[in-house]
Sequence to fold (537 residues):
Amino acid sequence: MNGSQPLLATRDLTGGYGEIDILTGIEMTVAAREIVTIAGTNGSGKSTLAKAVMGFLPRTAGTIRFDGIDLLAQPAEKRLALGIAYVPQVANIFPSLSVEENLLVIENVADRRARLEAMYAHFPALKPLRRRRAGSLSGGERQQVAFARTLMPEPKLMVLDEPTAALSPAIVSKILALIRTLPEAGVAVLLVEQRAREALAISDRGYILDQGRIVLADTAAALLSDTRMAELYLGHGLTESDKAPS
Amino acid sequence: MDFALFANLAFNGLIEGAVIALPAVALTLVFGVMGFPNASTGDVMTAGAYAAQTGQIAMAGSIVAGVIVGSVASALLALVFYLCVFRFFQGRPSMYALVASIGLAFATRSTLTFFLGYDQRVFPIPLTRAFSFGPLRIVPSDLYILATSVGAIVLVFLLLYVTPLGRRMRAVADNPDLARSCGISSHRVLSAMWLIAGAVTGLGGILFGIKTVITPLMGWEALLPAFAAMILGGIGNPAGAIAGALTIGIAQELSTPFVGFTYKIGVGFAIMVLALVLRPSGLFNLSARVR
Fold:
């Protein structure tokens, strides 16, 4: 993590959909050009955390700051202009739009044609498909469309919600390799993943969530060698003394 | 069988279908983006027709000026309905918005009749002599109606499928949250969509009024065939709605020698029911949905 002020920082973030809190006291940071993994078992609240950052969680308390700006005071559609792009876990493309329309529909792109060509150069498989309805694409192709679309406006931060879910192992490797290159392009990544080991292997740091709370927070290398993570994933849970201060 | 009779009925059905196509496109646009059947569409048609007739008289009898006044008035009325009512039902069960739209339909009709009464009105346009084209006897005003409807539909399609606004509208229809994360203001896009739907609806009412007469119930009566056209074409499919309207318009007219004028609307609905039994997603839905 860079020594300067973090790009994204949550403080005592709590929230949920109804009366019950799904997230409790989340303290998390992402620095510029950093890959940070949020891992946890099913129902741990990791996708909810991504939604909270993106402004799609109906009830939130605490603070989320991005580049010094209070995100909770901003409507969801303002986040892209601030530099935050989002690839949700499901429904991450516009199925009735063509591939090219999916790329052109995103706002805050200065030179659309130049960026479009840059995306086709980066994702060459998409160029021959540009007139195809995105809804007719395979899972791997859809994920490429989603990545290309969110890279069009050259964001500072990409929030990726389980980008490898329901993909074949070969495609998973390609997606993770692509994510690893994003910091070189000046993009920080908040990577929500259930495949904790694969995600941490390409990350700088990570947070492990359990029942809506951060239970482990460390560098990716330290987490990968931490036996408590295996315990958590095997469903034994952690004792209070095991938990890292969040 | 009298070929000339059926040819003329089919042509008349084509004109009726072209008129019904306009509210059907508006209905399917609103359904595709907002997810509810907007029952106020018929009465926005009526309001557009009354506004156009009033505008025409105020503008020294210019029908073009009347059409512009009526379309703008109905576009604004639809926008007001969205801003004051429908936007509060987004993300809630579609039944709420449907019931609200029925309420707005009654409110619009009551307001019109309170101020304008129940008397029939007509657009003061000069009568023209029909001319023959093969077996067809064609009234020039029918050709103007057909050309206006086709022109409006072409404009709507260009707007939907060629412009960035249309791209945004289809994106919001596909996935509103994903559209927001792409920086698209759904409020602005929906406002534009309601203006377009309202203008198209009003134009349908104006053309219907030119073809027949203006009455407070004209839109309500046109709403049912428009709904049938939308359903027949596959909900959320503008091209399907047009094809559905033309099918219903022509079938209704061709049935009049057998069932009479009064019962022709039943034929349109019988076709709709039969088509849906055979193809539940709509007769013209080639894929799941073409927005």
